[in-house]
Design a protein that fits this description.
single chain, 5-stranded antiparallel sheet, 3-stranded mixed sheet
Length: 116
């Protein structure tokens, strides 16, 4: 009788291990912003949301910041000066984040985005 009980437990555990969860239930929707730079030299970019620093990204890579859904005031500036004007790049815009979605933010290095 004990052997039958042990066998049933082993079979149950094996079925649980191999059935697992399907991939759809394992996926988690990210909510936030994805920040990337366009036409920039290599430098760091300080990112602020509603006047609070949330991190730094490289102008060469995309950075993700998790945020709850809502509307935010985004401000960012480079940690290096433009080699031709000795001014910094800075960006200011309103960003809206929807639940379960990633909002893309592109920071373009153009003359319109130079500031002191």
């Amino acid at each position: 009788m004990n052997r039958v009980g042990v066998l049933l437990i082993l079979v149950s555990l094996t079925l649980l291990l191999f059935s697992g969860c399907d991939e759809e239930t394992m996926a988690v929707d990210r909510t936030g912003i994805e920040v990337r730079c366009s036409n920039c030299l290599t430098f760091g970019v300080y990112v602020f949301i509603d006047d609070d620093p949330i991190g730094e990204v490289s102008s060469e890579e995309t950075g993700f910041f998790e945020l709850p859904s809502g509307s935010y005031d985004l401000y960012a500036y480079s940690n290096a000066e433009s080699h031709t004007t000795n001014l910094y790049y800075c960006w200011h815009q309103t960003v809206t984040v929807s639940d379960g979605n990633v909002t893309g933010v592109v920071l373009a290095c153009t003359d319109d985005n130079l500031c002191e």
